[in-house]
Amino acid sequence: MKTSPAHIVEVRVLLAVFAALIMLTVVTVAVSYFDLGAFNLVVAMSIATIKAALVAFWFMHLRYDSGLHAFIFLVGVAFLGFFLIITMLDAVTYHPAVQTWEQSK
Amino acid sequence: MDMMVSSPTPPKSYLVDPPGLRSWLLTRDHKRIGLMFLAVISASLALGATFALLIRTELTFPGPTIVSTGHIYNRLFTLHGTIMIFLFIIPSMPASLGNFVLPLMLGAKDVAFPRLNLASLYLYVGGLIFFLLVLVLGGVDTGWTFYAPYSTSTAAPVVLAVVGVFILGFSSIFTGINFLVTIHTMRPPGMGWFRMPLFLWALYGTAIIQVLATPILAITLLLLAVERTVGIGIFDPALGGDPILFQHFFWFYSHPAVYIMILPAMGIVTEVICVFSRKHIFGYKFIAYSSLAIALIGFLVWGHHMFVSGQSPLVGMIFSALTFAVAIPSAIKVFNWLATMYKGSIGLAPPMCFSLMFIALFGIGGLTGLFLGSLVTNVHVHDTAFVVAHFHYTMAGGALMGFLAGLYYWWPKMTGRMYNLAQGQISAVLIFVGFNFTYFPQFIVGSRGMPRRYFDYTRLLDTHPEFTFYQILSTAGGFLFVGGLVMVAFVLLRSLFVGRKAPANPWGAATLEWQCSSPPPHENPPAPANVGDCYVFDDFCFDESAQGYVKVP
Amino acid sequence: MTESHIPNMQEGNDGGPDAHLAHHFSSPAQQYDAARLGMWIFLMTEILFFGGLFCAYAVYRANNPQIFVDGHRFLDKPLGAANTVLLIFSSLTMALAVRAVQLGRRRWLVGLLAITILCGLAFLGVKAIEYKHKWDHRMVPGQARIAYWFSRGETSEPLKKFQPDEAYVKERLAQAGFEDLDQAEYDQRVKHLGTYMGIYFSLTGLHALHVVAGIVAISWILVGAVRDRFGSNYFTPVDLGGLYWHLVDMIWIYLFPLLYLIH
Ligand SMILES: [Cu+2]
User: Fold this and answer.
1) pTM above the 0.80 mark?
2) A93 and A43 in one domain?
3) Rounded to an integer, what distance in angstroms lies between the CA atom of residue B484 and that of residue B404?
4) Are A91 and C254 a contacting pair at CB < 8 A?
5) Are residues A33 and A8 in the same domain?
6) B210: domain range?
7) Which ipTM did the prediction report?
8) CB distance A44–C47 less than 8 Å?
9) How far is the CA of B258 from the centre of ligand 1 (A)?
């Protein structure tokens, strides 16, 4: 059995992560005042994912941790992703039929 | 290990040490928690079986037989389904037998989080109380699937039932977390992943499903409750919601959930078949990996429950194709079991009888699943008794038989008493005959158009006068089936009073739980420094004086 | 075994070497590993728990993009941003609290945990202001019913229907360039707006419940810290509480752009 080291993170590192998180928050709010068309969502989600990764890897010690923990976390995300994609694929495909029915009312 | 068995003053068993009711109710001992789980899920099984008999009685004759309206009938089959699924099958094998056996098989002193384990038991009891409340208030009439928008508008106490299932979900998640962490962190130094008994692989796969799928059920039911009370417009089409979305949510849990029900049964069957064939398991790694494969592929097929719901044909085709893929790992297991038995020295003690029944009945259930998984035939038999027969062959013929096999197998270890083997075999025959008489006729009437969830089929008799005959057959089988279950209870409970003391190893098994006394002492014995292959039986010889197997050096 | 990575955990101080070691573990390192692994699996279940709502969001957004654009005009961007900063800051103090307990600095631990709790409470305060604002404009799904339950009225229960303040909704839609909608069009938009608000309240409400749970957990840890139960040799509860709090933060990091910043 592998033992995960209980890593003590430097204050300097934690503060740097915090600064990055605040900066990214400012960026994401600022960007929301410009219309990037289809990229609006992509940009917002990319920034959010970078922020989430910063929290996970440094605040939650994933960077210093057993790889198993990161794996478990990613498995959760992957299954959620699969659920979301298939359900969306279906909903988007049958939606026109629903719209036709609504307009026929 | 041997010293433990033959020592002149064996340590007191976990049943009496520590003594007192309080020590039972506040126990953190996995063995006691497992036994208490066994007691409460057996009560749930009895309740669910009672509703099953009421349903069968109603269907015996075409018109209203014992219920006057469809509304009452709707409540009967809903209660039967919800109780059997959420209160019996889901927790049956992991929480009761698994809880008892898992740490013993690992040579661990307990599961990783004993307090969480006890919490899981009390959450279960909490969920049970909610169901009893629902029962007192007249029951729910939505079917166990709680489909919106009916469930958001019916007058029945849906919210209570949903909260009950929500609580039971947490119970299940806690068990899953406990098993995963225990298997990961508490294996003894000598036991690598591929030295584990295959039952543990099955429990591991089950636990993965429990922690990955149950949260989706939890959010679904929470949203359903909110939709019903205030109307948030997510599932209710009158408010702009999408009822098909509810079905996606529901089946994303509920298809994997059938593998929560069947995987542990497969694990039990694997153990039993090796022990009672006195032969090493054939294809250890294939069985181990197929447990994982079932757990993972099981997540990719939920839409096969929605072929006629309005789901798009594109997604329907994807799900149909994936559904066929999930048959592969199950088939791998079946072929490996058959290969294990080949040229083995097969003994037909009750656990083995039920394991063989599992293979036969689950085989029929699985093969009829192919008709349902293929889009074209699904449209024909959807919502007929064919579907009912199919899932009872898998759930009752599979999961329940696996549970009974495990119960007969570990009963001497859990209670320290041997039951009468011949009586156990008779109960197996009763159940096998009763089961097939109950459900095989339903395949026939279902494929000829008998809808499920109908309580009055008078009008169908114009074209299908033979339906009454099959229904009478089915009801008679149902009573025989339940009679067999009563006999199981009789055989096992009788052993507590008149059964002879169980030896440490009555079946000659090589897994660790059989190497300590029956029943085990309060403190689980530690694993030996060198954990051997748990499927080598050559070192175990029957000892007349102990009336059980002992290890010869 | 690589226990040497945790030198502090092997030598106990106050309660003897095995004061916190449960009987069924063979070493503190094994116990610590098990606790962390269990917590990570639990966090994974939380992701999937919220995931259902994210899925509902994605489906409605894909099928009705317009209403999500309309919907965010009814939310308060500055308040949402303020709450984001609050939660991120509380995550920082929580991470520092874990560091403090690892180094055995009790007073720092107590102070940092207290700040974390205060930030959590402030977050809930801001959320309450936002909810109140929605309530005032009858923007809460099923509002008539909720009001009815609290009024103990004699009449029958109102229907489940989303009926926001019409003038307010029309004004906001006009700002977005949808001046004169006919009744059918307005009704259709309001119906979808109801779904949007339903998703908004489900997501933020469920998140707020998690914040409350986090505050309760951290308060319990704070009590333990005040009583000097934790030190460099035993800090598992602080560590796990931290993981949970960071997850709550992480979910908000997604909720903020998804709900407030869409356009
Ligand atoms: Cu299925």
Assistant:
1) yes
2) no
3) 11
4) no
5) yes
6) 30-551
7) 0.93
8) no
9) 7
